[in-house]
């Protein structure tokens, strides 16, 4: 049977439209001046070039393709900036064009459908979240009001190390406990995770495992994020793990919010004691531009706990590792501490500005071991032009601070751990100096940087002031493995095992 005449017309019309579309896309593609990069394979793109430490793979590629290169990972274009100039173009000059985050399965499943701060897209909700961080959660006054918590937890770390009695310890376990306790007291109002706490909803070990899983799942290369049409297969099983984890976190968050709401409803002179209280109060504010819902409060809370726990512990563990390889630096630091603080008391937060050498050690550690070596991925909200190249909308954007912070044109002998390079120099970590960006820069810069710095600087200062650090007897400094593993943080591959011996009068350890 012959097809009716309109079918032939329709077919002809469709073919013409398809041809025109193809021509116009090709013309557009030909006109784009994309940054240089390796040729890509169908479907996988350049995934074959990315190893288990992606920042190092991108570093090697940048040596060939230059400081702004473009790759294709699965279905997505990815631009990687690896110099001071290109980083500042992205994070400063064109910050607004790149101020959003890509949508990932982790953001969807583990942060209440992008309702947290880290993964929420650029827009009024995220802007309001940042305002809350600035004026409420991390204001100078709020952070000062929690100083007693940081001091108490620091004291408890000192006591634990003292009682290790010269035996070998896995340092990061102790450091994570301090950060987790500090952050849970500041954010949740108490050590919900205390072993001794009656009716504890969750054991500390279980909670730490959940945090490790959260970090891992937020850092992994989940195939479905890159090749979306096979995402439903969940070939690596990550999405299932994300959903399981989200249920566990939600159970905990529900408990926390219920307890806080109960206290608020029953106490007559209620005042906000912790960050969850502040968030619940904000959630009730009818004048907020965008309503903060219950799931938003839970997502923010989870972000604060996750952001505040791992990063400082990882950084201090790296610092002590580097120092064990460089005993001369420890000597210089302890001389400074003895001079400024003296041997009759512990270091307080107010001492930190007077300890330039200890602060230089922290900077040097963050230079060589950034917690987020490629910051957190961003996405182009609109077409942009960087250094004469076109960056089309929806391109994912990474700033490889790992490469920048090892750039031999910026740092002399970049592989050498040398705090001296920062002494007397006007380089800080506040996002203004693009050669040192451990907290990122621009609109998406870490909002918790001042808290993070306080915890890192005063922990390190007290660890150096109060203890002599040694490797286990059978180990030499040269044997110390300095490999890392990739995730959303960049910890040591092999946890550091050390011996801590008291160096101050014994009575000081009676805390
Ligand atoms: C050593 C300590 C820390 C380091 C090195 C660190 C590093 C970073 C980095 C590199 C980013 C991404 C910046 C970018 O995309 O340009 C970030 C974002 C973030 N950090 Fe931190 N951070 C630390 C401590 C904290 C603390 C203590 C908190 C909260 C309690 C926190 C909460 C966050 C949040 C919520 C974001 C997402 C911001 C956004 O997307 O708007 N961080 N952090």
Automatic annotation (TrEMBL):
Protein source organism: Nepenthes gracilis
Entries under InterPro entries matching the protein: Cyt_P450, Cyt_P450_CS, Cyt_P450_E_grp-I, Cyt_P450_sf
Cofactor requirement: heme
Protein name per its UniProtKB record: Cytochrome P450
Tagged with keyword NAD: no
PROSITE patterns: CYTOCHROME_P450
Keywords per UniProt: Heme, Iron, Membrane, Metal-binding, Monooxygenase, Oxidoreductase, Transmembrane, Transmembrane helix
Transmembrane feature ranges: 6-23
Homology family: Belongs to the cytochrome P450 family.
């Amino acid at each position: 049977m012959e097809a009716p005449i309109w079918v032939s017309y329709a077919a002809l019309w469709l073919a013409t439209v398809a041809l025109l579309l193809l021509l116009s896309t090709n013309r557009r593609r030909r006109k784009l001046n994309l940054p240089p990069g390796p040729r890509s394979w169908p479907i996988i793109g350049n995934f074959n070039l990315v190893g288990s430490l992606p920042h190092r793979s991108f570093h090697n590629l940048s040596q060939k393709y230059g400081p702004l290169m473009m790759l294709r990972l699965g279905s997505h274009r990815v631009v990687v900036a690896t110099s001071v100039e290109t980083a500042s173009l992205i994070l400063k000059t064109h910050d607004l064009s790149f101020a959003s985050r890509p949508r990932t399965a982790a953001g969807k499943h583990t942060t209440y459908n992008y309702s947290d701060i880290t993964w929420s897209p650029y827009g009024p909700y995220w802007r309001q979240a940042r305002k809350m961080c600035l004026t409420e959660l991390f204001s100078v006054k709020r952070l000062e009001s929690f100083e007693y918590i940081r001091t108490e937890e620091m004291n408890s770390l000192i006591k634990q190390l003292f009682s290790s009695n010269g035996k070998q310890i896995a340092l990061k376990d102790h450091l994570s406990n301090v950060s987790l306790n500090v952050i849970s007291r500041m954010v949740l109002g108490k050590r919900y995770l205390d072993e001794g706490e009656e009716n504890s909803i969750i054991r500390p070990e279980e909670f730490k495992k959940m945090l490790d899983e959260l970090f891992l799942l937020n850092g992994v290369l989940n195939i479905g994020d890159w090749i979306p049409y096979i995402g439903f297969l969940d070939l690596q099983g990550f999405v299932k793990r994300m959903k399981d984890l989200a249920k566990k976190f939600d159970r905990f968050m529900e408990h926390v919010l219920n307890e806080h709401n109960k206290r608020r409803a029953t106490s007559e002179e209620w005042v906000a004691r912790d960050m969850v209280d502040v968030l619940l109060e904000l959630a009730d504010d009818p004048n907020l531009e965008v309503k903060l819902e219950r799931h938003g409060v839970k997502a923010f809370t989870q972000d604060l706990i996750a952001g505040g726990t791992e990063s400082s512990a990882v950084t201090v563990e790296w610092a002590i590792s580097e120092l064990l390889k460089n005993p001369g630096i420890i000597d210089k630091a302890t001389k400074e501490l003895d001079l400024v603080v003296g041997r009759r008391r512990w270091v307080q937060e107010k001492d930190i500005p007077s300890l330039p050498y200890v602060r230089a050690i922290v900077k040097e550690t963050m230079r060589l071991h950034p917690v987020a070596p490629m910051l957190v991925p961003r996405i182009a909200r609109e077409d942009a032009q960087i250094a004469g190249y076109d960056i089309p909308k929806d391109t994912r954007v990474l700033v490889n601070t790992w490469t920048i912070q090892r750039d031999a044109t910026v740092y002399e002998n970049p592989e050498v751990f040398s705090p001296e390079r920062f002494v007397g120099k006007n380089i800080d970590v506040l996002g203004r100096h693009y050669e040192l960006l451990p907290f990122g820069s621009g609109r998406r810069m870490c909002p918790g940087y001042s808290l993070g710095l306080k915890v890192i600087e005063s922990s390190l200062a007290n660890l150096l002031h109060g203890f002599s650090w040694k490797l286990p007897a059978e180990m030499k400094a040269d044997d110390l493995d300095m490999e890392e593993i990739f995730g959303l943080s960049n910890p040591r591959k092999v946890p550091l095992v050390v011996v801590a011996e008291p160096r101050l009068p014994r009575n000081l350890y009676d805390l």
